[in-house]
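User: Show me a protein chain along with its predicted structure.
Assistant: Here is one chain, sequence first, then structure tokens.
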Amino acid sequence: MGILDGKKIVVTGVLTDASLAFGVAQLALDEGADIVLTGAGRALKLTQRTARKLAHPHGADISVFELDITVPEHGVAVREALQEKWGRVDGVLHAIGFAPEVCLGDDFMAAQWDDVAVAMHISTYSLKALADAFVPLMTPPHGTGGSFVGLDFDNSQAWPAYNWMGVAKSALQSVSRYLAKELGPKGIRSNLVAAGPVKTMAAKSIPGFALFEDTWDGRAPLGWDVTDSSAVAKAVVALLSDWFPATTGEIIHVDGGYHAVGA
């Protein structure tokens, strides 16, 4: 038996098999969940190809739905499809983030509001948009509660080059807390996993990412391997399960302890 036996889980953010979300999807399958993936825009075909790399215990194909988080109608369409397919949803992984290039790099002041607005919409408001889409399938008459888990990068301090994506992550943490307050009476939890740096497509788009790679392992008390996302996947799957029934509004650091030490 797995800790997600019988759970119905929606996984966003799978682009390649190096994506953090891919590791979560595979472990969720291994732990007994039924999953679907979502993709958007030109990346949808990439998600569909990557879905075929997931090893389903029973050899079944993994469904992929189009979900552009900036298009409310997509959320409605996916919800209706899952109501017909599953009847309910038990958990959702938020692994959605994007910022225009000018929002990252050496010049924090270069980004204008139109650029920042894109980053905030896709990287922050998207968590609330996922709640709009799937909370109805987590509550009666369909479900009896559920769990939202978001992938995060702790922005309690300023980082080189991260700039407005860091601001968006700070806002994401606040959105998760407010969702925890709002959805808790419905039996729905909202938590984030603040991961250390892992080599993914998203990481490659961050100028100066090598600075994180070069320093993290030496400073983290437990050490850190930027090529191994398994610890992140385990934390996410645990939060999607029933093993954290009284934990919500939390940020779980999976970073080798880097956040806890000053130097």
